[in-house]
């Protein structure tokens, strides 16, 4: 009995220590793809405002430019336009990281960053409540691939990139084989759709052509409409589902980092279709909304005080707040503050506020256990007004 348990633990450690899956050569990728594990766990945990969320991120477009795209405007008419919605810094990777972890930890680059395994993210919160999750990364060569990039094998063009894959940047994810197995490509999305095995939380990243990064918002808008149109009437996808279409960041670094957000899907109340919501939101609202919807624990970071999308807040009892200070016109969200991933201004990992209780939600027990003794040093205080590099918080 005892030997059996020890063997299992040992094997698990060996698997996580050796399965780095980072090689990007054609032969190595082909070999790894043969044995890559894919999983499609499902669950039906009811939410207060939606039972499923699909988050789609496009790339590098200013708000006005995005809203001017006819296909995105078409999709916006089917839902709610978020007209006061911001990214948290530049460039891409820290925004992806922030949207699931509640901070970008000072990141100011698109490097091969790996966040320490004692830093939690939305995956931990969802799993605590038995809510299935997954990522669909277009052209990822196999499930759980951890390499920096995978180019189109015929043209050599950029296709899949690690910097647009939020979960893979967290060691707490890559250390677990079953977590890697739900980080899949879009081929697997269509398999899961057909089999009715889509998860309740999903993050969808189109490739570098489709998301507009190497092309234009016209390509991104076209891709998004073509992708979503058939799903809007597919019951395996649309079943009290909320879809968020947004961008990682804007394009022009010297104007405020404002990005288009569109909420649509059958979870959006009919009376709100075609309306605009001018509440202040940022990438942390993605976390706060999911936490409020399913009554999850929090991460004790900027997720805690972020505004919940107001149509969801109306059902969860959350109250949205207006930005108070510093004056909003001084906020550009265009420079990263210090932190462990800042190449210019390094600092240790910020300590989550493990005693934070806001809107009735408390911090995940595992985070309290890991970080609780250090809470006196936390920079997080449940505020809405997140810092940026021009308005840093000292810690
Ligand atoms: C998608 O991932 C699956 C599972 O690992 C793999 O078999 C397949 O070849 C991948 N598809 C593409 C287009 O790379
Ligand atoms: C990106 O995906 C589209 C389909 O959505 C495909 O036509 C295109 O070739 C892909 N681009 C690259 C560079 O692989
Ligand atoms: C829609 O959701 C309900 C409630 O979770 C579930 O019972 C039903 O099977 C779902 N329908 C489909 C097509 O998945
Ligand atoms: C941020 O925007 C301000 C105002 O336009 C500008 O002065 C500053 O150079 C920008 N910072 C970066 C890093 O782009
Ligand atoms: C943690 O957050 C709470 C609000 O939930 C705040 O009252 C408290 O001051 C914060 N703790 C620290 C050490 O800043
Ligand atoms: C978290 O991990 C980082 C990196 O290994 C380490 O520097 C830090 O001390 C750890 N903090 C806690 C509270 O475990």
TrEMBL record:
Tell me yes or no: is Signal among this UniProt entry's keywords: yes
A Pfam family this chain is assigned to: Phosphoesterase
UniProt-listed GO biological process terms: phospholipid catabolic process
Q: Which UniProt keywords apply?
A: Hydrolase, Signal
Q: Which domain of life is it from?
A: Eukaryota
InterPro entries registered for this protein in UniProt: Alkaline_phosphatase_core_sf, Phosphoesterase
Molecular function, one GO term: hydrolase activity, acting on ester bonds
Residues of the signal sequence? 1-19
What protein name is recorded for this chain? Answer: Acid phosphatase phoa
Annotated organism of origin: Glonium stellatum
Starting at the broadest rank, the lineage of the source organism is:
Eukaryota, Fungi, Dikarya, Ascomycota, Pezizomycotina
């Amino acid at each position: 009995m005892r030997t059996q348990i020890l063997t299992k633990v040992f094997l698990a450690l060996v698997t996580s220590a050796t399965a780095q899956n980072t090689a990007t050569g054609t032969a190595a990728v082909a070999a790894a793809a043969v044995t890559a594990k894919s999983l499609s766990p499902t669950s039906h945990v009811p939410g207060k405002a939606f039972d499923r969320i699909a988050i789609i991120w496009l790339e590098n477009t200013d708000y006005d430019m995005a809203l001017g795209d006819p296909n995105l405007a078409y999709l916006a008419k089917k839902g709610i336009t978020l007209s006061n919605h911001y990214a948290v810094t530049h460039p891409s990777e820290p925004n992806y990281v922030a949207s699931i972890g509640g901070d970008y930890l000072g990141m100011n680059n698109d490097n091969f960053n790996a966040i320490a395994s004692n830093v939690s993210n939305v995956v931990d919160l969802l799993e605590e409540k038995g809510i299935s999750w997954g990522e669909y990364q277009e052209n990822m060569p196999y499930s759980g691939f951890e390499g920096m990039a995978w180019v189109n094998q015929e043209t050599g063009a950029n296709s899949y990139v690690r910097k647009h894959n939020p979960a893979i940047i967290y060691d707490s994810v890559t250390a677990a084989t079953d977590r890697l197995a739900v980080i899949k490509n879009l081929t697997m999305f269509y398999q899961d759709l057909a089999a009715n095995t889509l998860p309740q939380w999903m993050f969808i990243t189109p490739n570098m052509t489709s998301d507009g990064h190497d092309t234009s918002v016209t390509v991104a808008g076209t891709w998004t409409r073509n992708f979503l149109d058939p799903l809007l009437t597919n019951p395996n996808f649309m079943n009290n589902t909320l879809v968020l279409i947004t961008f990682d960041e804007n394009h022009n670094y010297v104007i405020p980092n404002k990005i288009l957000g569109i909420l649509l899907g059958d979870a959006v109340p009919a009376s709100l279709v075609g309306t605009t919501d001018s509440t202040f939101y940022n990438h942390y609202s993605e976390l706060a909304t999911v936490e409020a919807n399913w009554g999850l624990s929090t991460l004790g970071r900027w997720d805690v005080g972020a505004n919940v999308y107001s149509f969801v807040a109306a059902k969860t009892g959350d109250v949205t707040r207006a930005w108070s200070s510093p004056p909003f016109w001084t906020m550009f969200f265009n420079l990263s503050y210090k932190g462990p991933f800042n190449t210019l201004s390094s600092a240790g990992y910020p300590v989550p506020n493990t005693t934070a209780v806001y809107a009735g939600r408390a911090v995940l027990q595992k985070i309290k256990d890991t970080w609780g003794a250090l809470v006196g040093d936390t920079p997080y205080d449940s505020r809405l007004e997140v810092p940026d590099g021009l308005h840093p918080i000292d810690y």
